[in-house]
Every structure is written in C-alpha cells, then in structure tokens.
User: Fold this.
Amino acid sequence: MELILTVMADDRPGIAERLARAVEQHQGNWLESRMATMAGKFAGIVRIELPDSQFDAAHQALTGLAAEGLMVQLERGLQVTSEATEHRLEVVGNDRPGIVREVTTVLANLGVNVIDLQTEIEPASMSGGSLFRAKIEFSLSAAQSMAGVIGALEALSPDLMVDL
Assistant:
C-alpha cells in the first residue's frame, strides 16, 4: 500500500533520518519526498510504500514520533490516472500583497492542476524593491491551452513576466 506522510517539527539535524529509519523498520520503501525548512520549522511530505500487514505498526511508530517532537500524519495514497500533460513555468514580477492569491486564482479558474508551487521574494537589483518569483509545475488536459494560461497570468499585471 502507498501512504502519504506529512511531517512538521522544529528544525534540527536528523529529522529525515529518523523518518527513514521508522519507515525501514516496517519494511517500507521511501518513494519520493519534498522537504524544506522555513523560519526554523521543518515541513515535509513523503510518499512511502509498505506491506499491508505493516500498516498498524508503522502508523503507531510514525505517529509515536510526536514524543520526539515530530508531528506525522498518514493518509492512504490514491491511484491516479490522467491523460493530462505536465508543464513548468516561472512567474516573475514586483512583489505585492495578494500576488500568490492572484496567481493561484487564475490557475484555479482555468482548471489547472498545480503539482508543485515554489515561491520566494528576492531583492530587485534595479528598483531597490522586492521581486516575486514563482516556479509552478502543473498539468493541463488536452482541452486546456498553454497560451491561455500564459495570457491569463500576464494579464494580472503589466510587470508580470511568464517564462516556460
């Protein structure tokens, strides 16, 4: 069976190793993960596979990591089949409050399925202000248009640039 783990903890060395050890102890296989540290907190999402017979013991061991300061939630993975194609683009523009909502609203209104969204704010070298940068991985169905996505994002603001 496939499980999705979500993990939160105060950042410190050894968190990924502790999770990996608990997964391995229950005959699990670590399939993929995304982990990051922000503002002193560790956050992660991990997809694992393990034998059905190990579910109860693995669940108890992983949620039991709360005693070590690791909050772990488990969900069974779903079988997903899709005819959609995956794409990546980058959006760059002057930072302002609400820009993430604006970008995600455009994508949601177009029925775009966001797979991965990474955002950051960096200094704008020429203006002295702040620059918003988003790297977006998403899928489109055959009926959806990449040109439509780019046009809708660029229509948000004259300073917003979209690169494939």
Observations:
- Residues 29 and 81 are 22 Å apart (CA to CA).
- Strands lie at 2-10, 29-38, 41-49, 71-76, 85-94, 113-123, 130-140, 161-163.
- The first strand starts at residue 2 and ends at 10.
